Amino acid sequence: MIAGGLAAVWGAACHRPAGSLTVPIMTSASNAVPGGPADVEIALRAVPGEAVLDIERAGASRVWRFEGEVIAGPKDTLSSFERSYLGPTFRVRRGQRVRIHFDNALDEPSIVHWHGLNVSQENDGHPRLAVNKGSSYAYDFTVDNPAGTYWYHPHPDGRTGAQVYAGMAGMFLVVDDDDHARGLPTGDFDLPLVLQDRALDAQGELLYDHNPMIGMLGDRMFVNGNPNITQLVKAGAYRLRLLNGSNARIFKLAWSDGSPMTVIGSDGGLLAAPVLKPYVMLAPAERIELWADFGRAPAGEELALESQAFVAERGRMGMRGGASVPNGTPFQACRFSVKGRGRRLTLPTQLRALAWRPPVEVINVGQPRRFDVTMNMMRFLLNDRTFEMTGVAPDERVKLDTTEDWEFRNPGGIMAMPHPIHVHGGQFQIVERSVAAGAKEAWSTVGDGLINEGWKDTFLLMPGERVRIRLRFERHAGLFLYHCHNLEHEDLGMMRNFSIEA
Ligand code: C2O
Ligand code: CU
Ligand code: CU
Mind listing the pLDDT tens digit for each residue in 160-216? Predict the structure, then answer.
């Protein structure tokens, strides 16, 4: 069904350089599960299935999806979106020990990654741990992240894009009891929204066919795995948890009535205080939490989150080929139909205290570890290297219990593309952004909406931009990944290991 298409062809042509060091690492395909009771135990299966992808035509289309079931522990740990291809939404608490039995019923290897969670390498879903059809993998970890909006998706070598696109992804919410005290909307007024684009072929089946330079861009929107992108809301205050679950689509989100965006959270939970922005850039894998007051709309009105026009890349030479709706094209991403009265709440002025890592703790302050993000003759490179399953270069080794600054550079130029950069192993802080003179004009179409606030695990690196981040390597030694979260770039090799060494 899901055609490998160009991805398979280009994947085969992808070069893997020799000469990098290989470190001894855990390669067992099964995680040794220590004894003792878990707080919650879950069965999660990757299965072929069906979902309605086109409201206008009768019948369902083929998808791949996660199916979940609570085996032990609180039943409300899992919930599902209605008429959705997405996997169940997890709701867990910090400190809970979670055991997940993953079964793969797909015809190809797969493995699950818990995006943004601080877990050991055995639980991180590295591609070397992928299991074949009929095999399973046991996860066992204690939730160690602050309350926030995280997610999960497959992470097999070379097929992450195809599997996510086929429907495999879900929300992973870490919750606590404090939202009420903080004055934030809860229950039905705390609304997760997974934004994804897709393309369908003439038969209404998912079409996975793309220009590998750009990645897979669709021409229709899905919200929470449903082609009906209209959400019914009440005239009151909402907490909207937005995830960009697309492969390559970058959103420039703004309210259709021109109100500013009130940002209260990002990848790793709540911000210190709400921040107003004219629009918000949301790159693949990024999350944003908004405070939205639908009481401002007259009853029966519709409001929309629009994706506005921006300059994505200055490519020539048919760079836009294949995508009928290139990045930067305006469209409606999500609609809200306002009916009935909700609760009026006052936006809190403070949300939570964030303890940034002090500069004195940084072992390379002023001399960040540097990563050049480049594309060259169909090769997708991080410091001139592509992915090697267990390869780690000397400059990709860090020490446990240290704090470092890393700087990612997108050189810009004619072929430059935006890259959403993601680092496994926890959350980091964005320290600084700078833009080359020649790239300023294009950058100014996105600059005011870039998310630098709060704890992050993914950030948008625009052409001509340098972004400096501060990371603390704590708790877990082992092999972790950093990569571009344009899933086609990732699958074509724009991914590397780094090793945290005790
Ligand atoms: Cu969300 Cu390594 O990925
Ligand atoms: Cu991740
Ligand atoms: Cu990229």
Answer: 999 999 999 999 999 998 988 899 999 999 999 999 999 999 999 999 998 888 999
Distance CA 167, CA 412 (A): 33
69 Cα to the center of ligand 2, angstroms: 23
User: Using CA of residue 151, residue 498, residue 465, residue 264, what is the dihedral sign?
Assistant: positive
Cα–Cα distance, 333 to 114 (Å, whole number): 25
- Cα(284) to ligand 1 centroid in Å equals 10
Distance between Cα 297 and ligand 1 center (Å):
37
**82 alpha carbon – ligand 1 mean position (Å):** 25
For residue 28, pLDDT over 60 is answered with: no
Atom of ligand 1 nearest to the CA of 153: 1
Question: What is the length of the chain?
Answer: 502
481 lines ligand 1 (CB under 6 A): yes
- From residue 226, alpha-carbon distances to 81, 125, 199, 335 in Å are 9, 27, 13, 13
Residue linked to tokens 């990645």: 215
Output the furthest CA–CA distance in the chain (Å, rounded).
65
- Convert the pLDDT of each residue in 400-424 to its tens digit: 999 999 999 999 877 789 999 999 9
Closest ligand to residue 152's CA? 1
Question: Which residue has the CA at smallest separation from atom 1 of ligand 1?
Answer: 115
In this structure, the number of other CB atoms found within 10 A of the CB of residue 331 comes to: 16
**DSSP assignment of 355-394:** -PPPGGGBTTTTS-EEEEEEEETTEEEETTB---SSEE-G
Is residue 287 lining ligand 1, measured as CB closer than 6 Å? Answer: no
Whose tokens are 């060091």? That residue is 21
Atom of ligand 1 at shortest distance to CA of 115? 1
- 149: CA distance to ligand 1 center in Å? 14
Whole-structure pTM value: 0.93
Q: Whose CA is nearest to atom 3 of ligand 1?
A: 115
Q: Quick check: 73 and 51 in contact, CB under 8 A? A: no
Secondary structure class of 5 (helix, strand, coil): helix
Residue given tokens 């008429």 in the structure block = 83
What's the order of all strands across the beta sheet hosting 136-142? 61-72, 40-51, 97-104, 136-142
Closest ligand by atom to 285 CA: 1
- C-alpha separations of 79 from 53, 84, 88, 169, 439 in Å: 21, 12, 5, 14, 44
Distances (CA, A) of 1 to 64, 106, 205: 10, 12, 8
Separation of alpha carbons 108 and 131, rounded Å: 8
For residue 458, give the ligand 1 atom closest to its CA.
Answer: 1
Cα 318 to ligand 3 centre (Å): 18
Task: Indicate which atom in ligand 1 lies nearest the CA of residue 424.
Answer: 2
Element (H, E) at 272: strand 269-277
Give the closest residue to 182 by CA, choosing from 117, 260, 237, 118: 237
